[in-house]
Amino acid sequence: MTQQASTGPLAQDGEGRPRHLLRRVQFVVAAYVICFLWGTAMHLVDLAGGGHNSYASPAPAPIRVYFVALVLLDPLVVVLLARLRPIAVVVAGAVMTVDVSANYYVNWPQISQHPDYLLRPLGLLPITLFALFVAVTASPLYRHLSRTAEARKLMSDNVG
After folding, report:
1. What pTM was estimated for this model as a whole?
2. 115 burial via Cβ count (<10 Å: 0-12, 13-18, 19+)
3. Other CB atoms closer than 10 Å to residue 103's CB: what's the count?
4. Residue 123: what pLDDT?
5. Block mean pLDDT (10 aa), the chain, length 160
6. Strand, helix or coil at 77?
7. What pLDDT sits at residue 152?
8. Are 84 and 12 in contact (CB under 8 A)?
9. Residue 95 neighbours by CB under 8 Å, 6+ apart
């Protein structure tokens, strides 16, 4: 039988949730998880509709491979976040940086001819907004998850 800490950074509330996660951190983590799961779903829909040729656009092969790889990378971020690993924030930032860059590269001809193309609700707008959200929240979230991981390690070292 394991003993749960009733106080300190790993204390849990009555429902087993870590009390150390502030509401705003919970909100940020939830937003990341929801958006990366949404991305996974969208890429799965794309692949179900067209197979590995779903992204057979004028995009170079590395970009097409990356878009297919998002079916694995997006859920990886979710799993790492669920485990409250600081590396999740690094991976999320890298995934979104490459994702938004690749999408702008592929869609640049439409954007340059029709700037309102950016405002499509299911196109570049949500990807851009989420990438900006990740850029703004990544550093504080990383710091918080690092402190949490450190506290978790100290606690396990003291127990063992």
Report:
1. 0.79
2. exposed
3. 18
4. 79
5. 48 52 89 97 88 72 91 97 95 97 91 87 88 97 89 69
6. helix
7. 72
8. no
9. 36, 70, 73, 74, 77
Question: 64-70: long-range contacts (C-beta < 8 A, 24 or more apart)?
Answer: 66/98, 66/99, 66/102, 67/43, 67/102, 68/43, 70/39, 70/40, 70/43, 70/95, 70/99
Residue 128: C-alpha distances to residues 5, 20, 35, 118 (Å): 41, 30, 12, 9
Which residues partner with 157 through β-bridges? none
Cα 157 to Cα 10, 18, 49, 87, 125: the distances in Å are 14, 19, 50, 21, 46
How crowded is residue 137: how many other Cβ atoms within 10 Å of its Cβ? 20
Token pair for 54: 């779903």
Written as six digits, the tokens of 104 are 């702008």
CA distances from 3 to 69, 116, 149 (A): 40, 57, 19
Residue 111, classified by CB atoms within 10 Å of its CB into exposed (0-12), middle (13-18) or buried (19+), is middle
